[in-house]
Amino acid sequence: MAIIHDRDADTLLLLCRAGFEADCAAELTERAAGQGQGGYARATREAGWLTWHQPGQPVAALMPRTLHSGGLVFARTAWPVLGHFEDLPQHDRISPLLAQVAPAGPFSALRLEHADTNTGRTLQRFLRGFRKALEPALKKAQLWDESADRILHLFFEDSGRGLFGCAAAASVSPWEQGIPRLRLPAAAPSRSALKLEEAWLRLMSDTEQAHWLAAGRTAVDLGAAPGGWTWQLARRGLRVTGVDHGRLAAHLLDEYPVSHVSADAFTWRPPRPVDVLVCDIVDKPSRSLALMEKWLVRGWAKVALFNLKLPMKQRQATVSSLLARLEASLAEAGLTMQIRAAQLYHDREEITVVVLPGQGGA
Question: The whole model's pTM is what?
């Protein structure tokens, strides 16, 4: 059976937060236009997924170059579609699927995915059982090779219908559906701690984390209370100053290298530059961005990781405009920085941004 190669595929499947399908489509429209290409999305509001089509034009250029750079802001994960399956017989779903995916093999990993919606989550039990049957079948059919660096993706709309495709590990999320399975430790002062953990997992490489989040580094958390982000940094050994009129969880000050400053995050300035700035303030995104620009341009922090709350409308246009403004401000100041942004699983009406020094930054 002939099959199109993923580098020649003209369709992408993308998973996103339900309700952000139009923002994901708008971002793809902008990115494709920047590459001199055109396309269109097929999306249903609140579905949690969509497809992007570029008839006769490969979509490979829309994929990120590496896991931590060039990714789409509103897509949790995306991969080239090689075909679809439907009407899988209940008595044997494996055989027809193997026949369809075999020409694209062998594969080094398997991702069974569904939409992150109430309807999609009803498939979880089915997919757990299906995986137990499919993985041995792939190996028996000699379609499994851990050195192949080709991930087989199967997206299920229901138990008998969906889409399949392949992608190299370097260009897709390391987690099924683009969702990391993180657990909140009892010591965390708030659930926002998971947001920061996901942020550096998705937006920073292991090397960058080891370098910038090392014990002994200094950090400031603007709008820190009750201390979820402060705790994540301090548990790694960073010396953290939490700035907020509100109180931090008592055990942060007793058990970790944390100091508290009762002050306005927008007017307080550090007595000396720090390595890392984090900020999760509920305010207009343009005001929050201006605060981050000030810290970076004035050299008060070397790295910044922060959230931007989104408006109700024109979310993608707002994000595009703000990130372009940040890039221009840093360039005007003579700073060579990398800007990465994503709407995380633990984000809601917001995106998370990390700004890192370019190659050679200390």
Answer: 0.93
